[in-house]
Amino acid sequence: MRWCFSFIFVLVLVVLHLDGLARSRALATPKTASPKVSSPQDLLSFTHYLNTCPDVEGIIQNKVRAWVKKDYTLAASIIRLHFHDCAVRGCDASILLNHAGSERRAEASKTLRGFQVIEEIKAEVEKRCPGRVSCADILTAAARDATVLIGGPFWEVPFGRKDGKVSIAREANRVPQGHENVTDLIQFFQARGLNILDLVILSGSHTIGRSTCHSIQHRLSNFNGTYKPDPSLNATYLRVLKGKCGRRYNYVDLDGTTPRKFDTEYYKNLGKKMALLSTDQGLYRDSRTSPIVEALATQPELFTNQFAVSMVKLGNIQVLTGKKDGEIRGNCNFVNPY
Ligand code: HEM
Questions:
Q1: DSSP labels for 253-280?
Q2: Local confidence band at 38 (pLDDT 50, 70, 90 cut-offs)
Q3: Ligand 1 center from residue 206 Cα (angstroms)
């Protein structure tokens, strides 16, 4: 019976994986003169900047490398910034807009970092090819480069996203914060075209990076003991966290064992009740996600390969590619004045 279940699970995983590969390969297929355009993401292409800004990927890569060399923690922050962009109104750089009431000013965006990196890349790109490259494309490629720099996989980024003109704080506050249940997470991802496998794989980004103690406060008991620690936390790990979380905005590593390595320890930690976020621990408990967690804990190659596939899917969410959609911002922080 157990054998039969494992077989069915592996089969499902293979089908989901092949489906993802087929989608990302489809993006690589050169466009023919076919008039049938099925979705905006089909208009993205690997050769989008070939004539208008051929060096753009090199510029982005050099800048990300220089920043991460100065401050290693920025790699994780750039990956998260990309997720928060794509999760609200699609990958349209709406997270970068900096005005009263924008996503960037939302409560949920308080701990986002890396804005300066994207700003500096944009300034350099504007010098070389003015008005050509969108902030949304820059952020997407920067997230890929940040992943590679910390030892994760490489994938080709298709380009051609335009920048959005709308950014609303209230919408940013709907991005999961770490206290949701698995059903909430599945629904949030599905509404953006991402499946359960994508959810578990992309949560694997928490193999690197940090969280403020504020995000896990509900898992630790408070000083006067009016609420108790989360029983799904390993007792020794709980002690360590309490020691580190004297202040709300102290940082703790999301991966308690190998925080600087892009590896599958994050998934192994879930089995040891050592997830930092309760949402991550939930993936181990829920029957819809736990078989995937268990498979990933022992198959690093599956994680790396599927991570690349799921990141391409993330970067394709609700992209603006139509002639009348969006714009190419001159400055990533503001919509164009005209
Ligand atoms: C599944 C739902 C998710 C939840 C509930 C969640 C929640 C969180 C929380 C609470 C933090 C710490 C925030 C703080 O500083 O207090 C965090 C950090 C982070 N998240 Fe997620 N996240 C999710 C999905 C994702 C996805 C899809 C990605 C990337 C594709 C991602 C990448 C990251 C990274 C890299 C960090 C560390 C950032 C840094 O060190 O600056 N997360 N996440």
A1: ESSSS-TTS-SSHHHHHHHTT--SSHHH
A2: low
A3: 6
% of the chain residues with pLDDT over 90:
83
Calculate how far, in angstroms, residue 35's C-alpha sits from the geometric centre of ligand 1: 40
CB within 8 Å of 92: residues ≥ 6 apart: 85, 136, 161, 162, 163, 164, 318, 319, 320, 326
Write the residue with the smallest CA distance to atom 25 of ligand 1.
203
Give residue-wise pLDDT tens across range 186-198: 999 999 999 999 9
Residue 18: inside a domain: no
Ligand 1 atom nearest to 189, measured from its CA: 1
Whether residue 228 has pLDDT greater than 90:
no
Residue 70 has pLDDT above 70, yes or no: yes
CATH of the domain at 101: 1.10.520.10
Active site residue 84: yes
Q: What range does the domain containing 297 cover? A: 198-310
Nearest CA to ligand 1 atom 24: 203
- Domains identified in the chain, total number: 2
Specify whether 154 is located in the same domain as 276: no
